[in-house]
Amino acid sequence: MSDKKKILIQLDSDPIPSVFDRIVAIDAGADEVFSYGGIAPEMVRDLIYGAIFTRGTKDLNHTAVFIGGNDLARGEEMLGRAVKSFIGSLRVSVMLDSNGANTTAAAAVASAGRHQELKGAAVLVLGGTGPVGKRVARLCAREGAAVRLGSRSLDKARQACEEMRARIAPGSGSLSPAATQSEAELSRALEGVQVVISAGGPGALLLPKKARERFQQIKVMADLNAVPPLGIEGVDAMDKAADRDGVVAYGAIGVGGLKMKIHKQAVAALFERNDQVFDAEEIFKLGRALPAQ
Amino acid sequence: MSDKKKILIQLDSDPIPSVFDRIVAIDAGADEVFSYGGIAPEMVRDLIYGAIFTRGTKDLNHTAVFIGGNDLARGEEMLGRAVKSFIGSLRVSVMLDSNGANTTAAAAVASAGRHQELKGAAVLVLGGTGPVGKRVARLCAREGAAVRLGSRSLDKARQACEEMRARIAPGSGSLSPAATQSEAELSRALEGVQVVISAGGPGALLLPKKARERFQQIKVMADLNAVPPLGIEGVDAMDKAADRDGVVAYGAIGVGGLKMKIHKQAVAALFERNDQVFDAEEIFKLGRALPAQ
Amino acid sequence: MSDKKKILIQLDSDPIPSVFDRIVAIDAGADEVFSYGGIAPEMVRDLIYGAIFTRGTKDLNHTAVFIGGNDLARGEEMLGRAVKSFIGSLRVSVMLDSNGANTTAAAAVASAGRHQELKGAAVLVLGGTGPVGKRVARLCAREGAAVRLGSRSLDKARQACEEMRARIAPGSGSLSPAATQSEAELSRALEGVQVVISAGGPGALLLPKKARERFQQIKVMADLNAVPPLGIEGVDAMDKAADRDGVVAYGAIGVGGLKMKIHKQAVAALFERNDQVFDAEEIFKLGRALPAQ
Q1: Which pairs from C229-237 meet CB under 8 Å and 24+ separation?
Q2: Shared fold status for C7-100+258-289 and C103-255
Q3: Backbone phi, psi, residue A102, to 5°
Q4: Model confidence over B218-234: pLDDT tens digits?
Q5: Which residues of chain C have a Cβ shorter than 8 Å from any chain B Cβ?
């Protein structure tokens, strides 16, 4: 067993590296957190070199990288650069959670999955073309659900489905685009759906109560926006398996406890090996393995 | 008992966060210091959110905030923003010590109080309208002294007294303005005074020796400026309860040992609860409780 | 024995303080690393004041300063400012290793010295006027070698020798300039030489194989440039005491293991006393004392 300290290198795209991520890292068992703010993709390589050229291969699982900040697109680019900088076995485990998107999507899908078996279920993702929505859709499809990826624009929804198809294992669930702007479109999208997850931006109502009430088969609904008005009318941000008109409801803060547990679990797991890359799927898998709260 | 690490979040208004404050924090028992430089008041809220939304309420006493930097006015604004960012019991303890002003004022008043009971005493604060001077005046008045807040401009002195009156508990000491520019004004201000504390800027002689010598009742004098010429002629920066013409004298460096002890004590005390706000008064109270050196 | 934590203050001239130096510091036993990036010489004094005015004299060996970054000239200026900021016994140990120059030079000379007694040997330093080359020349001369400091310009070589003469103890080795541009000059410089160390910039071939092969007395050659083409034709960056045409060869990566050991050893040694200044010579001395790998 190595006596090396566990070092987490926090690469944050924001000028001020997140206090939140830093505290969670410490509480997850990192001995040291090296916090870097204002990181752009082109700075990543040298930082990774510093990480992989210091400790011996057998100790490299004691160094890991966490990519955060508000800008998820930039975070994804940073993750790509990090992985490309590794040289054979000279690599460290790395986790992406810009804007908390991965841990949020994982917590939402894991929460829904506690009430409705996702394999074979029909799931509607509202605001599905945004970064969190795409992650939710990916996770549900990989669990075996027939996912309708909703967007006001059918074209955008189609494009997002195309993008992600490569990530869905053949034989698992499916992804299909759904327009959700007009009442008629929304009704078509809700037909036969057991789970609705709303991942739209703050302040946009995507599913009015009266549209939803006509579909009694909906079993679970989750809204990942914490700023009112929420995307699903009738859900409260604090809801955590709350009963709302006979539907199990989750709000953004309601999934927050599980999100936090998943975040900690993932940071701790980074140090188990030196070759892990934690994006949505890997983080979800860790989250699903957690005992129910 | 929680096994959470004690995290101090250092918010410094200077671009380079103070090494001094960081070392003292470690020596005071903080397990981790998160150092942020170049902090402006409008950045404080998000940093505080990171602090209060991570750990459970029962563990929030293991996270605390230290506000420092050279600009005390900015530090006060940052303190205000921090306190306003708390949400009910979601809060952490916070300490302000920009430019060392609070720990310096506390050490000076505690030192003087070891030689002269402040309750009922007459105290002259030279340079009393500056940030340290105002803190010294507040502390002495709350101890029960009749404080003369001195300034070259009577108007400014009056204004400073007005500002602070709300902070002095009724029935405790008093605050009155005193002009101290001309020899005649200075003599009037020194009449019957037992304690003189000089808190003016560097290089300004506020009390010439010959003016002081005519007032044999002066028992203690302290000068908080470390750069010669000091504000009180005849005091040396190293003086620590030194006898200067029969007066007990303290210089800036002479109170430094106690100041450091108070600083450490205060940082350690931050972690006792999660709802403390340490400005001059609270820090002085901690300092007074320390055993004499 | 003090129970103070060992704090290393990393002053880096680059905007992003080196991850490499930070990890090595932790692995060398520092309990805390305070990392500061974008440091200019004029900022050093206040940072040093923060280091020397916090802990008592008997504990100052628990605080130390590491100067790094890519710019060695700036690092040397920072070291000068740090040393000038000390006040009598109020000082901390400080180490310079900008661009890894000191630990690299120390590792190269120590490696060569394992195969050829340097006292009395003739050593040619190619690229000898650069910062690493000058360090290599200094170290060899102090070991008692007759050093030929090579440069394409004899004037520059002469100037570098002049500069360093004060640093070579009288009675130890010697330093003499050598032009190395033309084939004839190079041959003259190689006459009777046992050790060749190349410290030129990346991508400049300084010693072609056919020039070298005519000098069978060469016993050791080391090339400190890791980017091909190397300075000495026929050496590989990975070489570590490799046999190349009967010559013991070292490449930049080949000396890397020893360089890392020396780096760690030096950081650990900083905390033994509070009055050490580690530049090339001191770091070499530590490196030579390490057991052979």
Answers
A1: C229/C203, C229/C204, C229/C205, C230/C198, C230/C205, C231/C126, C231/C127, C231/C198, C231/C199, C231/C200, C231/C204, C231/C205, C231/C206, C231/C207, C232/C126, C232/C196, C232/C198, C232/C206, C232/C207, C233/C205, C233/C207, C233/C208, C233/C209, C234/C209
A2: yes
A3: -70, -45
A4: 999 999 988 778 899 99
A5: 4-5, 7, 9, 32, 34, 36, 39, 43, 46-47, 49-51, 53-55, 63
Residue in A7, A39, A43 closest to C23 by CB: A7
Q: What is the pLDDT of residues C218-272, one digit of tens each?
A: 999 999 988 788 899 999 999 999 999 999 999 999 999 999 999 999 999 999 9
Confidence (pLDDT) at B293 = 55
Give A198 or B163, the one with higher predicted confidence. Answer: A198
Query: Do the Cβ atoms of A19 and B34 come within 8 Å?
Result: yes
Which of A43, A46, A50 minimises the CB distance to C23?
Answer: A50
Nearest residue in C to B259, CA atom: C54
- Residue C45, SS3? helix
Q: Do A46 and C16 touch (CB under 8 A)?
A: yes
d(CA C41, CA B10): 24
Contact A36 C16 (CB under 8 A): yes
Stretch A5-26: mean pLDDT: 98
Percentage of chain B beyond pLDDT 70 is 98
Nearest CB partner across the interface for C55, out of B22, B27, B33? B27
With a cut of 90, say whether residue C291 has pLDDT above it: no
Domain boundaries, chain B: 7-100+258-289, 103-255
What are the beta bridge partners of residue B16? none
Contact check, Cβ <8 Å, B47/A16: yes
Shortest distance between the Cα of B221 and any Cα of chain C, in A, equals: 24
Choose the closest CB to A54 out of C23, C33, C35. Answer: C23
**A24 to chain B: closest CA residue:** B54
Task: Tell me the average pLDDT across C11-31.
Answer: 98
Residues C194 and C220: their CA atoms lie apart, in Å, by 7
pLDDT number for residue A170:
63
Q: What is the CATH T-level fold of the domain B7-100+258-289, as seen in this structure?
A: Rossmann fold (3.40.50)
Instruction: State the DSSP code for B43.
Output: G
Q: How far off is chain B from C96, nearest CA to CA, in Å?
A: 19
Domain C103-255 has CATH 3.40.50.2000: no
